[in-house]
DUF1416 domain-containing protein
Amino acid sequence: MCGAPQQGGTLAGVDLSTQTVIQGQVWHDGAPVAGAYVRLLDTTDEFTAEVVTSPEGEFRFFAAPGEWKVRSLAPVGKGERVLSAEVGLNETTIVVD
């Protein structure tokens, strides 16, 4: 069975000196978007993972260092960001149109 893990919460117990974490929020018209699907894609646009945003619009992925595309799909629109993730915490915001 496949399902998106619950988003939000702290990173307690996560060693940010060895882990690469990509996290952030999805926003639309100045407000966070709850229940948006957020996809993690590699440099060839290959699907890697998907989560659903928390009530506060938060999402989080554990990934390898490198170039990533983070795409959000929500009833109010879609948006994406490209980022270069390094070991540690990598934060971003996706604004949906």
Q: What stands out?
A: DSSP finds no helices and eight strands in the chain.
